[in-house]
Design goal:
The chain is of the alpha/beta class. It contains 17 helices and 21 strands. The two termini are 33 Å apart.
């Protein structure tokens, strides 16, 4: 086994087109030859398998070997995608390629353009590092056969990724993902994959202008624009595009957090470049305390997500980040008030509040598996969101989550409320009185060993809980077999019965492994009836008690 591992590494070394990863692998092989045990374990992990298509493509740690993100893996992925497109009769189609500012993103994008061109298709490269929604827009705007975005979104600095879109501008779903994976596996020696040094188009700034023109249209002419905003792109690529979008739509320029304003692939001021992670918003909140804006807005590094924070005297430091479900409900209420028609869609792990907003407005409602690759395909979609800070407010323009257009819609809503002497928090209170308080929380466990996640799922499947937080489990679903409305996925869903004696109308728990990070994620919801605005504090207290008890009981049941 040991000799086989070394031989596979040496074979990989011969083919690797990247001097940097070749040097890295040689050093690892030398350490293994010298008897270094940790080096052998590292080598074994790199060659334990190949990166697999997960959430719309590939994502993983940078480094040498088939189980890492590197140029050899990207060349094979691009060749597989090109082969699949040719098999689908799109051999003369256009593939648009975008990239963010992470380590190796531009190199991976150039390799993709070269492979696509060498396969006989046409390739167009975005002009510079840009947000993911610009790429998603470009696919539809240019009538492309497919799109590739090189990004690891909000993952740690050591990661990168490869997200694939089809010609409708939506991320890939089965059977396309498995079909592309089969083509990737069938790619022969890399030396036989044509990679010309030129032949692809580099788009000019006109594609960004077209995106901005479309995005500016998500807000109404004549609606209020007076609003002060503190904004952070979290060292990502969102700043330039968001500032231009705000200017084109007529909003005052946001005050940008200087320490996080420019792209930096090392993300030096945050432990994880994700607005949801503890500490990620600390600098933005410090700026807000000094500047006193109306709201704080943040994008993740590729700007497809949007976080919103509001002043809150009860919160530590005076600012509170809204949960994704709260922002999702606010945007839905705003769109409904503006006369939106069509379907409102969200996922099985998001709040059920959207279903009540849709029902009250007489609109369609759809619930999908986690991820915008599913939300974007809801029939008649007008608006979709997921609790992980992703919002699609213009599916005809960008059939994916878009942190830039979402920021504009939130700014429009906050400005309209400000003109009326109200705030986003006031609107959330009104929604709770009208539809019930839908309180959500998450139990998220990051692991080093993925077997911890597998063990937790196995324990819950083997011994499903019959009661959580003192509420009886009314139904327990293993989603791995699929349902009448959902395709199979690795997840568990528990619906809990409430009643007048518990002070809870209903509760729900969904447990699933993350599709992009080594995490076990448990999504919790408690619905508490609210008789009037005066009852909101009691409702929040009761909901907090239930959510805390759900966390405790679920952790015990899962053994985490």
């Amino acid at each position: 086994m040991g000799n086989d591992l070394v031989q596979r590494a040496q074979d990989w070394l011969i083919e690797d087109p990247d001097p940097q990863t070749r040097e890295e692998l040689r050093g690892l092989l030398d350490a293994v030859a010298a008897g270094d045990g940790p080096a052998r374990a590292d080598l074994a992990d790199r060659f334990s398998g190949t990166l697999q298509f997960g959430t719309a493509g590939l994502r993983g740690e940078l480094g040498a070997g088939p189980n890492r993100m590197n140029r050899a893996v990207v060349v094979r992925a691009a060749a597989g995608l090109a082969g699949w497109l040719r098999a689908q009769g799109r051999g003369d189609g256009l593939v648009v390629v975008g990239y963010d500012a992470r380590h190796m993103s531009e190199e991976f994008a150039l390799d993709t353009a070269a492979v696509v061109t060498g396969a006989g298709l046409r390739a167009a490269l975005l002009p510079r590092p840009l947000p993911t929604p610009v790429l998603a827009f470009a696919v539809r705007h240019l009538g492309a056969a497919a799109g590739v975005m090189v990004t690891a979104s909000h993952n740690p600095p050591r990661d990168n990724g490869y997200k694939v879109y089809l010609g409708d501008g939506a991320q890939i779903v089965p059977p396309a993902d498995s079909g592309i994976a089969e083509r990737i596996a069938a790619v022969g020696p890399l030396a036989e994959v044509p990679r010309p040094a030129s032949g692809w188009q580099v788009l000019d700034d006109g594609i960004v202008d077209a995106y901005l023109e479309r995005v500016a249209g998500v807000v109404a002419d004549g609606s209020p624009r007076e609003l002060s905003v503190v904004y952070t792109p979290l060292h990502g690529v969102g700043r330039e595009v968001l500032e231009r979008a705000f200017a084109r739509a007529g909003f005052p320029a946001p005050a940008v957090v200087a320490e996080q304003a420019d792209p930096d692939p090392d993300f030096p001021t945050v432990a994880f470049p994700n607005p949801e992670e503890p500490g990620a918003m600390d600098l933005a909140f410090a700026h807000a305390r000094a500047a006193g804006p109306d709201i704080v807005i943040a994008n993740d590094p590729d700007a497809d997500r949007c976080a919103v924070a509001v002043p809150d005297a009860r919160a530590e430091g005076g600012w509170r980040m809204l949960r994704g479900d709260e922002v999702g409900a606010l945007i839905a209420a705003h769109l409904v008030a503006g006369g939106a028609s069509g379907t409102l869609a969200t996922t099985i792990v998001s709040s059920s509040l959207l279903s009540r907003i849709a029902r009250a407005a007489g609109l369609g409602y759809a619930e999908t598996l986690t991820g915008f690759k599913w939300i974007s395909r809801a029939e008649g979609l007008r608006y979709g969101y997921e609790e992980a800070l992703g919002y699609c407010v213009d599916p005809e323009g960008v059939r994916d989550k878009d942190g830039i257009s979402a920021a504009l819609v939130v700014a429009e809503l906050a400005a309209a409320l400000k003109a009326d002497g109200r705030t986003l928090t006031d609107l959330l209170d009104r929604i709770a009185v009208e539809h019930g308080l839908h309180a959500t929380d998450q139990l998220s466990v990051r692991v080093e060993d993925l077997s911890v996640i597998a063990g937790a799922m196995a324990r819950l499947r083997g011994h499903p809980p019959t009661e959580l937080a003192g509420l009886p489990v009314a139904s327990a679903e293993d989603l791995s077999a699929g349902t009448a409305d959902l395709p199979p996925t690795d997840g568990l869903r528990y619906r809990l019965a409430g009643g007048p004696e518990s002070g809870v109308e209903a509760a729900r728990v969904v447990v699933r492994p993350s599709g992009t990070e080594p995490k076990l994620k448990c999504y919790l919801e408690a619905v508490v009836p609210v008789a009037s605005a005066d009852a909101l504090d009691d409702a929040r207290r009761r909901a907090g008690e239930v959510l805390a008890a759900l966390k405790r009981d679920l952790a015990a049941a899962a053994g985490i």
